[in-house]
């Protein structure tokens, strides 16, 4: 299952009591599908690492049942112990997930390769390798792809991401048989999206509020119109990213996305389990102004 295009990392919706809000999760999924998402993903940005196993199973099951096969569903099954990653990946498969995304941290070298070989042989779900801290060398990534036929994609979001993507893409093109494809996607909320697409990425996994804008950027660039991709990126994505940085609030991007969904009537609260801070009011005012003026589904909901 090749993953490419605009793939939102879902936000975890919580109710007033701090439990998972199933109805808000369903509304988020409907929004993402209407916005043209190419798949749906649970990840660090879904606060997956802050959930109990029972809550993970609850969220994955709700998403599988509501998505009903309309889009591939990617579950984050990262765990610091290989046995834990195996167990979570099996739970995800039982809950209906189509793909598992696993960050191998702290595995290195042969331990890294063995993790994906075991996941491939013992669970059998298609796999996304999440290289989120530069923990994997290009050589380790290639060795894991060779050892694990279940690896369908690499999500690379580390220091100097575009450069590493180009190195890995060239090596994969040389090493893979003609009947196998492994896609490369970016993350980090598209901070270097254009450069990533220049260097072999075929998609990105940002937060969901502006996923249709990210999709337009990807489609323009992959269709050969880099100037249009650049204009959309600099007009509609970059200003908000700069404001998030300017506000300096811890975890500000996640809270802002949840707050936008609350204002749009998709979420009942903007609660986060991760330690986050509310950005300064002037930041939120400018983000709202840009969001409302954008050519996006969210603008029509605000």
């Amino acid at each position: 299952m090749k993953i490419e295009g605009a793939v939102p990392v879902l936000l975890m919706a919580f109710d007033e009591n701090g439990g998972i809000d199933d109805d808000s999760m369903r509304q988020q999924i409907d929004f993402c599908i209407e916005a043209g998402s190419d798949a749906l993903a649970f990840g660090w940005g879904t606060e997956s690492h802050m959930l109990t196993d029972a809550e993970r199973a609850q969220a994955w099951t709700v998403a599988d049942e509501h998505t009903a096969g309309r889009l591939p569903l990617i579950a984050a099954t990262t765990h610091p112990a290989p046995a834990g990653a195996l167990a979570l990946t099996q739970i995800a498969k039982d809950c209906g997930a189509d793909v598992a995304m696993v960050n191998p941290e702290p595995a290195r070298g042969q331990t890294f390769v063995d993790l994906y070989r075991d996941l491939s042989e013992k669970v059998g779900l298609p796999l996304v390798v999440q290289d989120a801290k530069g923990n994997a060398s290009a050589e380790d990534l290639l060795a894991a792809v060779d050892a694990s036929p279940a690896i369908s994609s690499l999500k690379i979001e580390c220091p100097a991401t575009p450069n590493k993507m180009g190195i890995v893409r060239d090596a994969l093109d040389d090493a893979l048989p003609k009947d196998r494809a492994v896609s490369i996607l970016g993350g980090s909320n598209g901070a270097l999206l254009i450069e990533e697409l220049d260097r072999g990425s075929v998609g990105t996994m940002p937060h969901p509020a502006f996923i249709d804008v990210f999709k337009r950027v990807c489609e323009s660039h992959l269709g050969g119109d880099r100037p249009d991709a650049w204009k959309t990126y600099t007009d509609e994505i970059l200003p908000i990213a700069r404001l998030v940085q300017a506000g300096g609030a811890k975890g500000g991007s996640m809270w802002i996305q949840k707050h936008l969904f609350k204002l749009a009537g998709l979420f009942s609260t903007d609660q986060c389990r991760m330690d986050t801070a509310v950005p300064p009011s002037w930041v939120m005012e400018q983000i709202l102004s840009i969001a409302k003026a954008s050519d996006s589904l969210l603008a029509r909901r605000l």
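The chain is about 50% helix and 10% strand. The radius of gyration is 18 Å.
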